[in-house]
Amino acid sequence: MTIPSPALKALQAVLGAEYLLTAEADRHCYAYDAANGLFVPEAVALPGHENEIARVLQLANEYRFPVIPRGTGTGTTGGALAVQGGLVVVTSRLNRILEIDPDNFLAVVEPGVITGQIKAAAAKVGLWYPPDPSSANFCTIGGNVAENAGGSAAVQYGVTRDYVLGLRVVLPTGEIIDTGVRTAKGVVGYDLTRLLVGSEGTLGIITRIILRLIPLPAARQTLLAGFTDLRRATETVARLLKARLAPSALEFLDRASLTCVRQWLPYELPDAIQALLLIEVDGHPHDVQERAAAVQTHCQEQGATLVLVAPTPEETEKLWQARKVLSPAAFRLKPHKLSEDVVVPISRIPDLVRAVEGISQQAGLPILCFGHAGDGNIHVNIMYDRREAQEQAAAHRAVKELFTVVRRLDGTLSGEHGVGISKAPYIGMELSEAVIALSLRLKKAFDPNNIMNPGKIFTTAGGRP
Ligand SMILES: Cc1cc2nc3c(=O)[nH]c(=O)nc-3n(C[C@H](O)[C@H](O)[C@H](O)COP(=O)(O)OP(=O)(O)OC[C@H]3O[C@@H](n4cnc5c(N)ncnc54)[C@H](O)[C@@H]3O)c2cc1C
C-alpha cells in the first residue's frame, strides 16, 4: 500500500466520505481503460472543486503516494491506470460547460464534460468544435487535452491542441495556475499550454479549458469509394489531397476491417472490394457539391469500382457509425488486440499498408489497418488471443516490427493515442537520449516527488526497448 491510513483519513476529510471510494468493488470499476491492463487503485477520489484537488496533491507530496488523473477511461495506452498503486482522481463531477461565447468564438469548460456535449452546445449557436475522436460520445474533454486527441476531422481542421487557448491546471505540488489566453493570439512567455496538452496527466490535473470554436460549416457531403485493389485505394488518398479538394475527413478501411463492420454499413458491398475510403467535404453548399463531384471523378479514375454519395443525413450518420464502431468490432476476429496508431508521411501510406500485410503473414495473426489516412494516421490493430503464449509473443514481435517499419518510413509511433504504458518501452526508437533527459528534467521541475501519474511515457529504463 502506498497510501497510509492517516493519509486516507485526511483525504476523506477533504473530499467527504461519499467521494472517496475505498471499497474493493468500487475500486475495480476504475482498474482498467481501453488498453489491456488491470491495476486496482488503492482509492478513488471524485473531487467537486479544484481546491479539493490542490489539497489532495499536497497530501500526495506529504505522504508520497501516486495520483492518477482519469476522465472516462477510454484511453488506449493505459494512461489512466494505477500502475504503481495510489489514488485515481476522476473528473466526472467537474462536468460543467461554463461558457459558450459566440461573439469571441470560444467555450470555457470543465475537464469532465463529454466531448460530444461541447460539440452539441456549440452547434446550438452555429459554432463548431472540430476535433472528433470516434469516442467523442463517451470520452471527456480533459482526457482529449491530456492525450491531444485527434479524429477524422484532423486532416482539414487539426487536433485538440489547435483548439486549446488556455488551461487551468493544478500542479503536482498543489499550486493552481492559469496558462494561455482568451484571445485569438498570445505570445507572452513560454507556451506552457502546448506543453501541457498531450502530457498524459504527468504534469498536472487540468481543471478548466478555454477552447477555440469556429463557424459550423453550412453543408457536408459524405462519399464512400470501394476499391478491388488495395494499393489503388491508398494511392487515392495522396491524389485527393494533391488535387486540393480539402476533404474534411478521409478515412481508410482495409479488407479485414470491412469484415468486422460490413453489417453496419447502409449498403451491400460486393465481395471483391478490398478497401474503402470514406470521404467528407464541407463548406458552402455550392462549393461542397462541386468538390464532392470532383472527389467522385478522382476515385473513379483511380479505379474505384463503387462510388456512393450518402443521399440523406441518416445514411451519412450510418456510414460514420460503421466507421466508429470499428475499434470495438475488431474483437470479432480475436479476443485481444494491440492497438497502434502510427503516422507516416501521406505518400508512404501504400508502403506502410503493404509492410503490415507482410507482418501479418509472418506473425500468422489478423492485422486490421484503418483510420485517418488523410493525415497519414493509420490504426493498426494486431488481433490475438492472450491465452495462447505463441500468439501473445507473435503479437508483441509484430508491434516491434511495425515500429521499425514506421521509423524507416519517417513516421511517428503515435498520432493521437499517446504513449501511456503500452508504448513507453519503445520511445527510444523515436526520441534521442538528449530529448528524453530534457523531458525528465522538465517533469522534475513540475513534479519534484514524482507523484503525478508515475510510470507513464518515460520508463526508468529511459525508453529503450
Ligand atoms: C472506441 C474508441 C475510439 C477511439 N477513437 C479515438 C480517435 O478517433 N481519436 C483519438 O485521439 N482517440 C481515440 N480514442 C482514445 C480515447 O478516447 C482518447 O485518448 C480520449 O482522449 C481519452 O479520454 P478519456 O476521458 O477517456 O481519458 P482517460 O482514458 O480517462 O485518460 C487518458 C489520459 O488522460 C489523463 N487525464 C484525463 N483527464 C485528465 C485531466 N483532467 N488532467 C490531466 N490529465 C488527465 C489520464 O491520466 C490519462 O493519462 C478512442 C478510444 C476508444 C475506446
Strand order in space, largest sheet = 15-12-14-13-17-18-16
CATH topology of the largest domain: Uridine Diphospho-n-acetylenolpyruvylglucosamine Reductase, domain 3
Helical percentage = 25-40%
Beta-strand percentage range: 15-25%
Could you say how many structural domains there are in total?
A: 5
The CATH architecture of the largest domain comes to: 2-Layer Sandwich
**Global geometry:** globular
Total count of strands: 18
**Main sheet attributes: strand count, strand direction, barrel closure:** 7 strands, antiparallel
What's the CATH class label of the largest domain?
Alpha Beta
Overall SS class:
alpha+beta
Total helices: the number is 15
Each distinct ligand: flavin-adenine dinucleotide
| Oligomer status | single chain
Terminal CA distance reads 29 Å
Mean pLDDT: 95
What Rg is obtained from the alpha carbons, in whole angstroms? 22 Å
Q: What low-confidence regions span 5 or more consecutive residues with pLDDT below 50? A: 461-465
Describe, in plain words, how this protein is organized in 3D:
Helix 8 runs antiparallel to helix 13 (349-363). The strands form four sheets. A seven-stranded antiparallel β-sheet has the order 15-12-14-13-17-18-16, sandwiched between helices. 34% of the residues lie in helices and 21% in strands. Residues 461-465 have low confidence and may be disordered. The chain has 465 residues and is α+β, with helices and mostly antiparallel strands. The protein has five domains: 5-90, Uridine Diphospho-n-acetylenolpyruvylglucosamine Reductase, domain 2 (2-Layer Sandwich); 97-215, Uridine Diphospho-n-acetylenolpyruvylglucosamine Reductase, domain 3 (2-Layer Sandwich); 219-327, Alpha-Beta Plaits; 333-408, Alpha-Beta Plaits (2-Layer Sandwich); 423-465. The chain contains 15 helices and 18 strands. It has helices spanning 5-15, 24-28, 50-63, 115-123, 141-147, 154-157, 192-196, 230-242, 255-261, 285-301, 313-324, 326-329, 349-363, 389-408, 433-446, and strands at 20-21, 43-45, 67-70, 87-90, 97-101, 106-109, 127-128, 164-170, 176-180, 205-212, 214-215, 219-227, 249-254, 275-283, 306-309, 336-343, 367-372, 377-384. Residues 33-34, 68-76, 79-80, 91, 111, 133-135, 139-140, 142-144, 146-147, 149-151, 200-201, 205-206, 327-328, 416-417, 453 line the site of flavin-adenine dinucleotide (FAD). The site of flavin-adenine dinucleotide (FAD) has 37 residues, from strand 3, helix 5, strand 10 and helix 12.
